[in-house]
């Protein structure tokens, strides 16, 4: 469920989860940051946002999402 569609109680729980050091909390926060960048209107802000996100991802020590081969 998207945070903007959450009920206040669930939003509070999501924000608490996001602040934790759990991997799932960090991964979700990164996903939300990437999702929010699609609303940027200028290339400069988008570039800065993606660079910030990519730097955070590279320092996060999270394993890359596994891919599946359909072949």
Helix/strand structural class: mainly alpha
Number of helices: 3
Question: What's the shape?
Answer: globular
Provide the succession of SSEs. HHH
Q: Give the tally of β-strands.
A: 0
Mean pLDDT: 81
β-strand percent reads under 5%
Low-pLDDT ranges: none
Query: Helix amount, in percent?
Result: 55-70%
Q: How big is the Rg?
A: 14 Å
Major beta sheet summary? none
- N/C terminus separation: 31 Å
What would your notes on this structure say?
This protein has 71 residues and is mainly alpha-helical. Helix content is 61%, strand content 0%. It has three helices and no strands. Helix 1 crosses helix 2. The longest helix has 17 residues. It starts with 7 loop residues before the first helix and ends in a 12-residue tail after the last helix. The mean pLDDT is 81.
């Amino acid at each position: 469920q998207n945070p903007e569609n959450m009920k206040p109680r669930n939003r509070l729980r999501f924000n608490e989860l996001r602040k934790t050091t759990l991997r799932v909390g960090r991964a979700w926060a990164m996903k939300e940051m990437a999702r929010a960048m699609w609303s940027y209107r200028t290339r400069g802000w988008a570039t800065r946002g993606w660079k910030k996100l990519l730097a955070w991802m590279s320092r996060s020590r999270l394993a890359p999402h596994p891919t599946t081969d359909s072949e």
